[in-house]
Design goal:
The chain is mostly helical. 72% of the residues lie in helices and 0% in strands.
Length: 132
Amino acid sequence: MPDSTGHNLDEEMLRCIEVCLDCHKACVQTIPYCLQQGGMHAEPNHIRLMMDCAQICQTSADFMLRGSDLHEQTCAVCGEVCARCATDCDRMADDPRMAACAEECRRCADSCSAMAGLASIPAQERRTGRPL
């Protein structure tokens, strides 16, 4: 489907944009919850990672929406940040809100990694950065 700039947004890219925006929303809405919960939820590194995740998701969506030829690079970084955020949120997976946020982050990590051409790398390796 051509957009206003004349570039085509294929179905895979449209899905990736949607997943990025969903992940952005999940992280932004979960940060105040984490701060209110305190303890490990409010650890500075955890909050910073969630902020990084929300920001790179928004940035990746924007790059794809405007047809930037750099979207593969932003998606690669987004996949990495989202995978790290999912792993961090999984530390609190006994909390349903954190489990839901981790799931959104995982969906985005997988979608962005595929968009970046990293789909041939096993998901576990992408998430940990170590070969299987």
